[in-house]
Design brief:
250 residues, 24% strand, 10-stranded mixed beta sheet, TIM Barrel, alpha/beta, binds iron/sulfur cluster, two-stranded antiparallel ribbon
Length: 250
Amino acid sequence: MRSDAAELAEVFSSVQGEGLLLGCRQVFIRFLGCNLRCDYCDTNVGVAVDTCRMELTPGRHDFRMLANPVDMQQVIALLERWQGGWPKVHHSISLTGGEPLLHVDLLHAWLPRLRAHLPVHLETNGVLPAALAKVVKEIDYISMDIKLPSSSGETSLWEHHQEFLEVAAAADTAVKVVVNASTEHWELERAARMIACIDADMPLIIQPETATDLTIRISPLGLMELQEIAAAILADVRIIPQTHRFIGLL
Ligand code: SF4
């Protein structure tokens, strides 16, 4: 695999709609491909894509199409132009997917150059600890998932998440769990205890699954019960939906 070109879906400017950086303006770099198949996934992770769309003006949706793989020098040039033309607008770069850590060799080569412009935020499914270990020193913020079997359909990831958490603790890390009406109390308790073994102050975000018509797939009472279970174990447990979808942002 080339280390100067990446399989990307899109590069654009928007507002972070999830987690602890909620509301921050970010440059999103969305990587293609994922090693999981979550039931609630809203990304076409198994679909091969020949082109990447790259926004020309931050937040204006004036995309141009680039052939994949995209030369990373083009991403760096875009960052330089946006930082020069729209200084102080962006808080950070969000590496998202798919699963960005599938591209670890490329990240290892390019993270120092990305980070020369803005801090780097990694959004990850939290199951590739060896890949994270190679790049964690060049990452400022991590939002990692713990995939609960009931909502994700992924049933055997607990040990991978545990190993990942141990590496991720070196960065400013928050954990996210997606929940729905099927989520069982023991799942939240197991996730919270796993986090507490590493750092009981690490934030846990409970994100209710949201349908395409914006219906929330768990009751308000169900959400609060899950929060109560985790809050008995962890210091910082928050309920945050995918806010960008409610205000029509990418
Ligand atoms: S980890 Fe994320 S991108 Fe991959 S299948 Fe699950 S929801 Fe989709």
